[in-house]
């Protein structure tokens, strides 16, 4: 018993501090004084939080996407990246092929985006706050697929994604209906063809038939054109693959994409053909024409269009 008493004397039982009503009154007085003194800051904080919550769950809400999801949207849905930062921020570095419209002038320049109302649009800013506000503006204007890059350009850089200072080419909006010029061309071509058929029919009716004349041999000549087979080896979350694919899309050529991510046998096959194991690698009719920098260099020299049109010939 003596040892037990000594043990409790060395390690006394914990006793919680006493709390008096006077202490609670002091805390309430301090909080009241803080609110009275700093009410403008608290009001601004409440407004900012309300705008952020409303942009995600309120009317016109947009879906936040990660940098990896943004790459997938660019690769597979030809998404438009809309940068709403200031002119200086955009000049210092931006995502490849992004369109720049500052948030302060977005409402006045919605006509520039009219063709993208039914396309995927991903809005970016520095941290995600301004882009959330811009997303609400687009949703109210009738844009159907609006996304917000969560964390903005800061999150993009933290994911080791590159920025560029070069002026890019935003993707062309997909249009299911032909433009007025295309429709006029089709109508003119149809009228011309109908007129030729009528003239041919009239000549056949006017010409006397010669019973003893041997049957005419009809020689058909078909114009053969070579469409090169374009293959690009890529991997998921590769910004250089996105840039190379965007260039091929801008050229309006058909291509086959082979994803070598997590597939060592395909990557080895690519490395043997290209002499390099990095992606992307582009081939035209099984002829290696280079990586992302390579095809952009060919394009700058004016050689890429002919190569994509004629292949190896």
In short, what is this structure?
The protein has a five-stranded parallel beta sheet with strand order 1-5-4-2-3. A four-stranded mixed beta sheet has the order 7-6-8-9.
Name of the CATH architecture of the domain at 60-158: 3-Layer(aba) Sandwich
Query: How many beta-strand elements?
Result: 9
Specify the overall morphology: elongated
Helix content: 40-55%
Q: What is the tally of helical segments? A: 12
Low-pLDDT segments? 3-9, 217-223
Reported by name, the CATH topology of the domain at 60-158 is Oxidized Rhodanese, domain 1
Task: Please describe what this structure looks like.
The chain is of the alpha/beta class and 313 residues long. Among the domains are: 99 residues, Oxidized Rhodanese, domain 1, CATH 3.40.250.10; 81 residues, Glutaredoxin, CATH 3.40.30. The chain contains 12 helices and 9 strands. A 5-stranded parallel β-sheet has the order 1-5-4-2-3. A 4-stranded mixed β-sheet has the order 7-6-8-9. Helix 5 links the parallel strand 2 and strand 3. Helix 3 crosses helix 6. The chain starts with a helix and ends with a helix. The relative contact order is 0.09. The N terminus is likely disordered.
Labels describing this entry:
313 residues, alpha/beta, Oxidized Rhodanese, domain 1, Glutaredoxin, five-stranded parallel beta sheet, four-stranded mixed beta sheet, 9 strands, elongated, disordered N terminus
Task: Give the SSE layout.
Blueprint lengths: L1 H9 L10 H17 L1 H19 L5 E3 L1 H11 L2 E4 L3 H6 L6 E2 L19 E5 L4 H12 L4 E5 L2 H7 L21 H27 L23 E5 L4 H13 L4 E4 L4 H11 L6 E4 L2 E4 L1 H9 L3 H7 L3
Parallel strand pairs: 1-5, 2-3, 2-4, 4-5, 6-7
Antiparallel strand pairs: 6-8, 8-9
Helix pairs in contact: 3-6, 9-11
